[in-house]
Specification:
The chain has eleven helices and nine strands. It has three domains: 24-54, no CATH class; 55-281, 2-enoyl-CoA Hydratase, Chain A, domain 1 (Alpha-Beta Complex); 294-379, no CATH class. The protein starts with a helix and ends in a 76-residue tail after the last helix. The protein has a seven-stranded mixed β-sheet with strand order 3-4-5-6-7-8-9, sandwiched between helices. Strands 1-2 form a two-stranded antiparallel sheet. With 379 residues, the chain is α/β, with parallel strands linked by helices. A hairpin with a 6-residue loop joins strand 1 (25-27) and strand 2 (34-36). The longest helix is centred in the middle third of the chain and has 20 residues, at 171-190. It has helices at residues 2-10, 37-42, 58-65, 92-103, 137-153, 171-190, 205-208, 231-238, 249-254, 264-281, 296-303, and strands at residues 25-27, 34-36, 72-74, 109-116, 119-126, 157-163, 195-203, 217-220, 260-261. The protein binds zinc ion. Zinc ion binds next to loops. The site of zinc ion has 8 residues, from loops.
């Protein structure tokens, strides 16, 4: 009953007040300062006085972050249908149509390939103005394919979130996108391909609870609301006053949930230096890592030493030989986390405690990323 009312309220398509075509001036939504539109635009839609970050569209983010003309959209053919024939006060199909008309987007996320300072990447940017940036099955599928594309090309993945959470109109199908995207991100991590998550205002619900929170590096815009349930619901549930600044990015930085708060003016430069860092790091010998879901015993048996023991010594002749074929970015993953390094992470290093646990599943390599290996239950 009441949740129907709430969803209606929460999924209201925001009016684009600040994009008044005739307005030369815009009022800051936070400090009330009157800002000259051109100046605001130059400042990437952030308040010059208080740094308030206005909400901007996915296309604007792409323009800000990527090299000019470098973005090529992918998977735009994947669109939401209305599998449940859902209807509350309006039909979901009608809501979809309206959102498409108003935003010019076909789904709440744009996924594609691009480059920052010449370094290629796979990028997905959510757009809050499309049904609250909600994560529907189509949005999840686009992200999933983006992750697979990153795996295939070994280009870093960047996902920028702006979302009210799962799209209620698709019920469980929407919720399952959380598991699907995270399972694929675990494979991406196993393959040693970096993933950078950027949280913008707001990042909530199932998006926070899945892919947005598992980046190798998690960035956030200043004062962005980041959380699972809203503060009011939490307050009512635990019946306690919430601390000052609760669920804002500054609070989460202090608690260790995000790695850095980056002003929108600095976002592109920060991404560029991270991409540079990861590209350089990929040239170093890689330490075997535990796969998502891999038991410790199994990892010791087949994957190499655990983190507390030193990584295998570099090959005698060529100490700084890159373990993975970084120079051939086109290849699909056999070198990935360094497991198949010449000296072998399976043989001498693995304690012989469970030799039968080291099946010949990975001849020639990849303890990290064999498609056919069953994933054991996590310890
Ligand atoms: Zn302001």
């Amino acid at each position: 009953m009441s949740w129907l009312k709430k969803s209606k309220e929460g999924l209201r398509t925001p009016q684009r007040k600040r994009e008044l075509p005739d307005g030369l001036w815009t009022k800051c939504e936070d400090c009330g300062e009157i800002l000259y539109q051109k100046e605001l635009e130059r400042n990437l839609w952030t308040c010059t006085k208080c740094s308030y970050h206005f909400r901007i569209s996915a296309r604007t983010y792409l323009k800000i972050l990527l090299d000019e003309e470098s973005f090529v959209e992918r998977f735009s053919e994947i669109v939401s249908t209305d599998p449940l024939k859902f209807r509350d006060t309006k039909r979901y199909a009608d809501r979809l149509r309206k959102a498409r008309e108003e935003t010019g987007l076909s789904e709440a996320i744009l996924v594609g390939e691009g480059a920052i300072e010449g370094r290629p990447l796979v990028i997905g940017v959510m757009d809050f103005s499309f049904l609250g940036g909600s994560l529907a099955s189509a949005a999840g599928e686009r992200i999933a394919r983006g992750i697979l594309l990153a795996l295939e090309t070994r280009h870093p993945l960047v996902l920028l979130s702006s979302s009210g959470g799962a799209r209620m109109f698709e019920g469980i199908l929407s919720l399952m996108q959380m598991a699907k995207t995270n399972a694929l991100l675990a494979r991406l991590s196993d393959a040693g391909v970096p993933y950078i998550s950027i949280m913008t205002h707001p990042t909530t619900g199932g998006v926070t609870a899945s892919f947005a929170s598992v980046g190798d590096v998690i960035l956030a815009e200043p004062r962005a609301l980041i959380g699972f349930a809203g503060p009011r619901v939490i307050k009512q549930t635990i019946n306690q006053e919430l601390p000052e600044g609760f669920q804002r990015s500054e609070f989460l930085l202090a608690k260790g949930m995000i790695d850095r708060i980056v002003h929108r003016n600095e976002l592109r430069r920060t991404l560029a230096s991270l991409l540079h860092f990861f590209a350089a790091a990929a040239l170093l010998p890689q330490k075997p890592r535990r796969r998502a879901g891999e038991t410790l015993a199994r990892f010791r048996a087949v994957g190499g030493p655990i983190a507390s023991t030193p990584p295998p010594a570099p090959a005698p002749g060529a100490p700084l030989q890159p373990v993975q074929a970084d120079s051939t970015p086109g290849v699909t993953a056999p070198g990935v986390n360094g497991a198949p390094s010449p000296q072998g992470t399976q043989g001498p290093q693995g304690p012989a405690e469970a030799p039968d646990e080291a099946p010949g599943t990975t001849p020639g390599g990849s303890a990290a990323f064999p498609a056919d290996r069953e994933i054991p239950i996590r310890e």
